[in-house]
Please model this.
Amino acid sequence: MTITERTTDAKSAAERPLASAKKLTRARRRQRFQEFWADFRRSRTGMFGLIVLIVFIGIAVAAPLIANESLLDPTKVHNALNAPPSWEHPLGTDPLGRSVLVMLMWGARVSLTVGIAATVMSVLIGTVFGLLAGHFVGWRSSVLMRIVDFFLVIPSLLLAIVLASVLQRGLLTLIIAIGAASWAGTARLVRSQTLSIETRGYVKRATALGAGHTHILGKHVLPGVMPLVLTSTSLAIGSAINAEATLSFLGIGSGDTSWGAMLQTALSSGAATAGYWWMVFPPGVAIVIVVLAFTLVGRAIESIVNPNLRGR
Model:
């Protein structure tokens, strides 16, 4: 056997344990997910919330296939104004003659997009700040926590209103405004969990063996805080959808059709006070149902990943 062949065999022998370790890791992850899904299916409220969310997301995705976007343009529709529900328009029409049902379907796209995207942004920022503030000590932790405290002191809705008013109007602005105003609470939770995890023996052993900050945070701390982050994400989406509806209701939304914008139209046109309930009831109920569904899913996830709540 030549030297080249021996070297190749040695590399192959060294790569085999690594490949086996990766397969074992993937198998464990699949097993944990299967166990999580089995526990989640036992929660009736969690499954109910998940089914409701799937229905609303499906409606939002299929909206362009069900109703053309041109139906949202008042200059291209010729329906009666403020018409009550009928066979032709099951949820009636708005003061501009647009079908409330069509607006409700297209509004789901904006409300869900803003709610999910803004929550992902706020959770990412909060998780990074929380990990760093809990891992590092001294002046670095103090500086990070003072930044978190600054955003905690300012009312999130007020900060979102200011950002949405200052920045250029649009969907991205609305996402940034809500996400930037709601991450501080997540940072506090992640920091407290990080402090708890770093007192455990396996983290101390890794530190004593010379592991760097990136290794400790990525391999030991982050997996430990992920259940908390996942629960916080599912619960925060409902708050983000409420924030989008509030900003749109105040007239500083993205300008696109959303559930909050529908309520603002009903108020500004006098439909809400004139007894045209079909302008107020459908978007209001849609907001309540979706927020409740996200809350049910979040509570179900929390009862699974939190050992203190398991089995209740």
Remarks:
- The mean pLDDT is 82.
- The domain at 38-68+99-305 is CATH 1.10.3720.10 (MetI-like fold).
